[in-house]
Each structure stands twice: as structure tokens, then as C-alpha cells.
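Internal tracking record. Fields below are filled automatically when a chain is submitted to the structure queue. Please do not edit lines marked as system-generated. If the sequence contains nonstandard residues, flag them in the REMARKS field before resubmitting.
Queue: standard
Priority: normal
Entity type: single polypeptide chain
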Amino acid sequence: MTVRYTKQFLGKLEDIFAESDYILRYEKGNFKSGYCVLKDTKIAIVNKYYTVEGKISCLIDILKSVSIDQSGLSEKNQKLFSELLQTELNL
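SYSTEM-GENERATED OUTPUT FOLLOWS
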């Protein structure tokens, strides 16, 4: 799967978070990796000043590093999530 760095694709990734247990927030901060994941409270925070490409890369990294119950996702998002887990980012 090729990752498209568009606002529409960013919206699809945000939909996966909306259907999962994790809360996605965009806030300012100086995170070394551009994002912070609070696993105990299931909150993912991404630097709001990042470009669309940076936000997409962060969200994909987060999705690969946390465990999400796929049974709670819609069929469309389950397919996208499975494809994302197999994708290597080429920036």
C-alpha cells in the first residue's frame, strides 16, 4: 500500500482512532518523536504544528506501536488498518 499524504488520508487515519479506544489530540509540545502516547490512559498526542505529512507519519507510527482491538473497527477501517500494519514508510 502506498501512503498518500493528503488531508483526506489524514481523515481516514483519524477515523481509525475515533473507532478505537484511543483518544487522538493535537496539541503543541516539543516531543522528540513528534508525538506522545499515554498507554495507560489510551491517549495519543501529536504536535499540532506538524505538516499533514508529519501528522500522517506520526499516526501510522502510533497505530503500529499500540494494540488496537480490530473488532471495534468498521470493515473499511479494518482493511485500512491491516494494510497500514504491513506498510513501510518512505519519506
